[in-house]
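chain below, 239 aa
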Amino acid sequence: TIREIVTVLTTQGTGEMALTVKEGATIEEIDAQLTDLGLINKGDFKLCTFNCAFTSYDFLGNDHSLEGFLFPDTYFLDGASFNSETLINQMLNNFGGKFTAQMKADLKTRSIRDVIKVASMIEKEVNYSTHPDDASLVAGIIWKRLDNDWTLGIDATLLYIDSDGKLSSEDLASTSPYNTRVQNGLTPTAISNPGIASITAAIYPKDSAYWFYLTATDSGDTIFATTNEEHEVNKGKYL
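prediction:
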């Protein structure tokens, strides 16, 4: 890809390493990337997100969870002097630069953290390779459900804490705060680090008559429905 070509041209022979954090990556996954590069011992990066001090970023508020705020991008790292805290500051600064003053003004009654939580769900729910325009529609459904005290019913929130990537009947019935099938409201943290497209969709959702959506198993298309009856039909047809 163009990004890979640029990475080779800019790092060959310089002693630098390139870390590409993809949209939707989690802290756990970034930690694994750094471990694979030989820059940290497994868990060091994740531990720093909890234990290192990042108090100068007003968008973090009083909640110290960094999930959702480590902006996806390519970061050039010096293996000889690398430390997790420096990288995290780069990522937070990057987020601060991308989340504009106009975006903040357009939040109205929403908090930045709630918007990032919703954006992190959109990142996992929308097939950006084929249907990027679905993001604002999905955002509208999520906010509408929240505003009307409906459960979100998003499996991706449970997959965030599921170690094997598969949801059992026990998982689906759990009382975890990440189980949005049974718990109302948003999850305690974001479930990924979203890109700018998902953040924009969360800030500027599209109103519609839809209350339900699913992702088709074969095509990856987002299938929308206005009633639960339509949604159940779609489940049988597309899943």
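The first strand starts at residue 16 and ends at 20. The CA atoms of residues 58 and 96 lie 9 Å apart.
thats it, cya
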